Please model this.
Amino acid sequence: MGNNNTPTIKKTFPVLQMGCASCAVNIENLLKSEQGVVSVNVNYASSSVILEFIPQETNPEILKKSVQSIGYDLLIYEEENNNQQVEDINSKKFKELKRKTIGAVLLALPIFIISMFFMNIPYANYIMWALATPVLFFFGKSFYINAFKHAKHFSANMDTLVALSTSVAYSFSVFNALYPEFWTNRGLEAHVYFEAVAVIIAFILIGKLLEEKAKGNASSAIKKLMGLQPNTVMVVKDNGNQVETPLENIIIGDIIIVKPGDKIAVDGELTEGSSYVDESMLSGEPIASLKAETNKVFAGTINQKGSFKFRAEKVGSETMLAHIIKMVQDAQGSKAPVQKLVDKIAGIFVPSVIIISIIAFIIWIVFGSDNGLTHGILALVTVLVIACPCALGLATPTAIMVGMGKGAENGILIKDAESLELSKKINAIVLDKTGTITEGKPMVTDIFWLNNDDSSKAILVSLENQSEHPLADAIIDYFGDTEQAIITGFESITGKGAKASIGNAIYIAGNKNLLIENNIQFDKDLIEKSKELIKQSNSIVWFSDNEKALALIGIEDKIKPSSKEAIKKLRNLGIEIYMLTGDNQTSAELIAKKAGIEHYKAETLPHQKAEFVRNLQERGKIVAMIGDGINDSAALAQANISIAMGKGSDIAMDVAKMTIISSDLNKIPMAIKLSKQTVITIKQNLFWAFIYNIIGIPIAAGLLYPITGFLLDPMIAGGAMALSSVSVVSNSLRLKLKK
Model:
């Protein structure tokens, strides 16, 4: 294990050849023992490992060899190609598995029919033996290969169970087919269990096939996100030629042409042309955004009607879309706290089952009278078959994967499983004001003209168009396409406003002090209006000619329409809401009142926000912090659940465990509901997984035989085992359908 002060690398690698949850435990234990490895998290459901290691002490090649030594494999090439190659490997694996399953079922079916209805035909045992052999050693050979690899390292997994149970049953049946007199001389029938062996392998392969299909379904959210990028783009070369270029060959600085209806391939800045772009995948807003020169565009968004060229600024794994995909992948690969417990259980489960099967075998031989050996062998086989840790291993990850996928589809990106599991316990929420409760963008709310005369508005817009003041944009946006006047002698007065001339007249736009300095007269009505606006915590811009004030403009950062509704929903869930802002007391009080928030704190600095969260935690609260800026990052890191607004800063999104892409607070109650549904699903899955084993193992060992004379057939045990995995996966997929 590494030293905390040493720089480490954290990477996610696909893992191949895992057969069940205890495979994940074995790989994890092996990698943890490697020199230079700081942390390991192997996830069976997403077939991946998150590895943190010290590059001076180890590297992916060494770790790959280590994993290969116990029969698995790591894919360690660059992440850009990972997704496609893993997709290809998984697709090939699925086709191969499908072929094996169909082959096993086609051979197992006649064996089953003969054993049930035609046992008296000549050579019945030999026909079944001939059909069962390829099922075992061709279609089911992977179980034996994997079991052998594990045995070499004194470890066991689900393949060990399958290999042990089927080989014991097969050997037993071969002996009975060749030497039936061993039993008949003792007054017993020489039963063969070729049908059980074949049906067990067929059932387990069907279960694996359904499992793989479900795992594919569960990660469909990532595939949908990946599908938002085109595979090739048109790059404009220096000589003006357009060349179709694969997405992975695009480099920063390339000029890309986008035609109507095209998907945008990478993040960049417009250099020529303009268009409306559908950015709903980022913002959740159905209205397309106007893009003109110098505007930013993002990978995965869709161009509408116009054409434009843009310069690539972020490519490959740096694009906003790639970050979103990475977040979903990391989230689906992370483990919920409950999963860590399940993995421990799976690790000790297989050896325990082997011990139980041996004990059952011995008890039958000692106490089973004449048929003790036969029943002992049957009990041994049946216990090994029914007790499969697959359902147990799939219980949590499949629910987490489906839950996170559903979150992603609804614009809620969840970085880790712990946040998804913990969200249902939130009882205090701390909200940043600007950009979280409010729009985060100043907007004109009121404009009053002297004597209702707005004839000089073209001059006001022209003046603000050249101003650098942040409130100038709000005024320009408000007036839209107003025709502009030609002004001369423009002068920007930092912190106060701007002035310019038209002919002999001078016009001023700025704060009250700037107008007073220029001896401007104020109308009594406008002064009264300004007092009202100040009470409502509006920012004020005055507009005048060289004699008198002509207009008064009120500007404020409006509350988002969804904020009030969301805060009401959260309060109805019994959650305490707190608002923190760096803004002044008056403004904070007004916003809190409008939004329906009782507890608020104004003029807070970044470290004070984090302290506030810590104080709530010390009072025993499970705190969610919701923010969008760099100033919120300390508080986000401190909170139990950190939620960033998608239109906020990259730093806030990096720190936060959840991101609301559309910045709509209504998604928070939705995330809490999703958390509750996911946790319920995990509990149901664990119940199903455990109940199968708790009921099945004692029955398989022959517990009911002394009471009812019932002995569980190994074939039925195989069916029950496959069914337990299928029921768990199906239950997880039900999450998708929940509202």
In short: DSSP finds 28 helices and 26 strands in the chain. The first helix runs from residue 21 to 32. The radius of gyration is 34 Å. Residues 153 and 528 are 86 Å apart (CA to CA).
